[in-house]
Each structure stands twice: as structure tokens, then as C-alpha cells.
Amino acid sequence: MALLKVLRHAQRYGIASVVGKIFAELPAYLRRIHLWRMRRCGCCERLTIFVSNGVSSEFCTCIFCSANERYELLAAELRETYGSELSQMEVLELDPHSPLRKMLSCARKHVRSFYEPEQERGSLRPDGTVCQDITALTYENESFDLIVSSDVLEHVPCLESAFKETRRVLRPGRVHLFTVPPRSKTKKRAEMVGMEIHHVEPPEYHCDPLCSKGILAFWDLGPDLDEVFGSDSLRFSVVRGPSGSDKRVVWIAQRPTHQTDRTSDSEP
């Protein structure tokens, strides 16, 4: 229901579709009007109304920029930790329509990416976003100072490859800043066996604006993330949170300045 989302939907699908979507979704928002709040958004910094169509803070969003709690946490971490340093950084954001776009646009280089398996990696859309696969990025070694993603990694079947690519394209001492849905333990929920999905746990689908069914979660990621995926060349830690009813946190995966493991294709 955020204004930016409405505009994007209108550009892609037309006004008639927007009207239909509003009529379909408005009752859920009105039923939870008691959860709406007026306050300053931690992401776009405007005085705004946070509207809600669900009981979780995940569904409480700024009407201007569409930020929810996890994006506000990321914005706070970016401002307080990096601040003016952002203008000297090269940033890869794994989100074509992130509420963080305005903040990150001040970077020396800000690459916004999307993923569609049928499109060629590295191809551009008219809006300037580039098709990238986090498990096989098209960029050279040590290309970025910062990678930002929000609730992306849990949907990556081969998470080991994603972290290998994170380590490869980050410069020494730099980080991948990310959120994932909080879970009590890191475990695989599903895996690809050939071209088929094999479910290790009962299927769990998360909301996806491009798919009414949602998007399958392949992983639960919990406090033991560093124990499971950490290595001498990529360390994981929580830098912000837990916050709110969902106990959201912000993680970093950091490539150390001085690495004992310099092999870019080694497994975590």
C-alpha cells in the first residue's frame, strides 16, 4: 500500500490493475487500522504513517518509501557506522526497489541488482538495474566495499556458493550487511537435487510481490550462522538488534583485512 509500490505496479501493469489490487488489499489494512502509527521513518526520515496489513512488524510499512522494521534497522546501521564514508564506497545492493536506494545513491558507485533465472547475467533493465546471481556474480575479485541485502539469502539454494562469491567480490576489511528472518538454529529447509526441489523440512513460502504463492525458503539462519558458515576468510556477527516483536537483527559477513585463507574458491 506504500505509494512507491503503487506507482511501480501502475508502471508495470497499468491503472486498472492498480485499482483492482487496492480494492483487494484495502480491507486487510482497514481491519488493522488500530496498528497504524504516525512517526518519523528511520529509512526515508519523513514524518509518515506506518500502515499495517498483518500482526507482524514485517507488514507495517512506511506509506512513502515502503520501509518496514528490517529496512529501518539497515538504514540505522548504514548511517551510524558508515555515514559520510558511503560517498567513497562502491556498493552492490541485491534489491532493485529497496527503500535504501536514496541513501545508497550517494555512494561513489551504487549497483542495484535483480535476479531472474531466465535472463542473462549482467543484462540491464531500462531502470538501470542489472541481473545478477549471488552464487555466480559477474564482477571481478575485490570489486565492492559493501554488499547490502534484505531477506534474500534464505532463498538461495546453494548458500555456500553465495558466501564464496561474497568473499570474492568484497575488498579486504569490507562487509556484506544483511537481514534474514530470525530463527533459533541454522539448518537447510530444502535443496536442489538435479532440477527437482527436495524438501528437508515442511515447505515455507515468504511473501513475494511477483508471485502470489510466495517464494520458497531454502534455509533457516540462526545465531549459530558463524559456526556453520564462518571461515578464516569470512566471519559472521550480529551488529544491530534484536529489535521489535519479530526480534529482527542486522548481520554482517566481513572479509578480514588480513586473511589466513587467501584461496577465493575454497568452501566455507
How is the secondary structure organized here?
Elements: H1 3-13, H2 15-31, E1 37-40, E2 47-52, E3 60-62, H3 69-82, E4 90-93, H4 101-104, E5 109-114, E6 130-131, E7 144-150, H5 159-169, E8 170-179, E9 187-188, E10 190-193, E11 196-199, E12 205-208, E13 211-216, E14 219-220, H6 225-229, E15 235-243, E16 248-254
Parallel strand pairs: 4-5, 4-7, 5-6, 7-8
Antiparallel strand pairs: 1-2, 2-3, 8-16, 9-14, 10-11, 12-13, 15-16
Helix pairs in contact: 1-2
User: Distance between the terminal alpha carbons, to the nearest Å?
Assistant: 40 Å
Please give the radius of gyration in angstroms: 19 Å
Helix content: 10-25%
What is the structural class?
alpha/beta
Strand percentage lies at 25-35%
Give the second-level CATH assignment, the architecture of the largest domain.
3-Layer(aba) Sandwich
By CATH's scheme, which homologous superfamily of the largest domain applies? Answer: Vaccinia Virus protein VP39
Cα shape: globular
The biggest beta sheet reads: 7 strands, mixed
> Uncertain spans, ≥5 residues at pLDDT below 50?
261-268
- Average pLDDT: 89
In sequence order, what are the helices and strands, one letter per element? HHEEEHEHEEEHEEEEEEEHEE
CATH hierarchy class name of the largest domain: Alpha Beta
Number of beta-strand segments: 16
DSSP helix count? 6
Largest sheet strand order: 6-5-4-7-8-16-15
By CATH, the topology of the largest domain is: Rossmann fold
